[in-house]
Structures are given as structure tokens and as C-alpha cells.
Amino acid sequence: MVETSSFWGPVTSTTECCEKNYVYLPYIAEFYNTISNIPTILLALIGLINAVRQRFEKRFSILHVSNMILAIGSMSYHATLQNVQQQSDETPMVWEVLLYMYILHSPDWHYRSTMPTFLFLYGVVFAIAHSFFRFSVGFKMHYVVLCLLCIPRMYKYYIYTQDVAAKRLAKLFIANLVLGSIFWFCDRFFCKEISSWPINPQGHALWHAFMGFSLYFANTFLMFCRAQQREWSPKIVYFMGVLPYVKIEKPKGQ
């Protein structure tokens, strides 16, 4: 996009989306890409409240908080289009996937301290390296590989889960992920064509919205699976008949 004079100064980020800069406010570079992170924050807050209220393991509270941190970092990046804020968006993306890897694999990991230690050090090293070298294509390839490493374990959880409502959550997670990715791809690679349309569909903003729901459904599905492992009699219920969440009944003494 065309660089525009603003409160934040010249654009220093290595990536921009197919949204015109500073159209609505001088303090927000990409307006729709900024506000589209709000659903992620709200859904993560709902998940956090449920995890804390029912005393789920702390890993799930941290997971929901990490979703909020990621969304806030994304808002900061798209509002300013500065390189430092871009790091605050991209680095938490990697940290979050590492957290998912821990949650997916920890139940069967025999040496409990080794995996979280390794993942923590990996995240720290990546953050330092990314701040110095400012990976662009390398970051995207690295992120995709980490996500792909989560798929086999997620699929295993899916096939071993018999609950129909829980399986529906996994399907909603995938559906939102695929739809969001299509919008991201079109916004990224067909910007020239889209820019000539009377109305820009704001594909990257739609990616944010769909990913917010995708993360919520994934988190809820993983909470259900973990509750099953702990024999907490989980079931999927719906807030106001719309938003699914996990309700558990812990045995006495827990």
C-alpha cells in the first residue's frame, strides 16, 4: 500500500495487507485489520473465565491468555505498521503454537520437566533471533511447519473422542481455519485485483475473525479431551443456546 504520513511515522514493517492506510483515523493504519482482533479477545476471555471458574489445569488459563496476548499484539501491529509491533504479533504466534504442542503431547510425555523446558528455551531463542534477523518468508515457513506438527496429535484426539458434540467442535475449528486461510490467501496474493473492486472485502480482517472462532473451538475441544483423560465427566453445553463450552463434574476430593 502507499505509505502515508501519520502519528506513527513511516511504515517500517516488512509486511502490509490489502487495506488502505489511515483512512478513518490518523492513529490506526489498518482500521479493519485492527478492530477485527476484538472477537478473539472476547472469546478468549470467555474461555478463561470458564477455565478458572471450573478449576481446569492452569495450562488452559495460560492458553486463553496467550490468545488474548496474540490478538493485542496483532492490534498493535496493524494499528502502527511498525517493525517492533510486528514482532509483538509474530513472536506470540510461535509461542502460542509451542503451547499447543505442550498441551497436545504432555499427557503421554514420561519426563515431565524436559518438554516444557525445551519448548520454553525454543521460544526464547526464536524471539531473540527474530528480533535481530527479522525473518519474513522464513517466519511464515517456520510457523506453518510448527502448525503441521500439531495435526497428527489433534487427529488422534478426534478419532478417540466418541462424543458427537465434541467432534463437532473439532469440525468447527477446521472449518473456520480453512475459511480464514482462504481469505488470508486472497488478500495476500490477489490484492491488485481486489483493489479495483468497488468494495474491499477486507480478507485479512476476516482471517482474524475466523481465526478467533477457530482458536476458541480448538481450545474448547482440547479442554473436553483433557477432562475426559482426568475422568471429570465433561459435556458440551451452550451459553445462551449458541456458544459451546465444557462443563465438568470432578469427583469428590479433587
What would you note in describing this structure?
The protein has 254 residues and is mostly helical. It has a single domain (31-249), classed as Rhodopsin 7-helix transmembrane proteins (Rhopdopsin 7-helix transmembrane proteins), CATH 1.20.1070.10. Helices cover 67% and strands 4% of the residues. The chain has helices at 31-35, 38-53, 58-80, 83-105, 114-133, 137-160, 164-189, 191-195, 203-229; strands spanning 235-239, 243-247. Strand 1 (235-239) and strand 2 form a beta hairpin. The termini are far apart. The model has no long low-confidence stretch (mean pLDDT 93).
Number of strands: 2
The global form is globular
SS-derived structural category: mainly alpha
Overall pLDDT:
93
Protein name: Alkaline ceramidase
Main location: membrane
Pfam family, one: Ceramidase
Organism: Arachis hypogaea
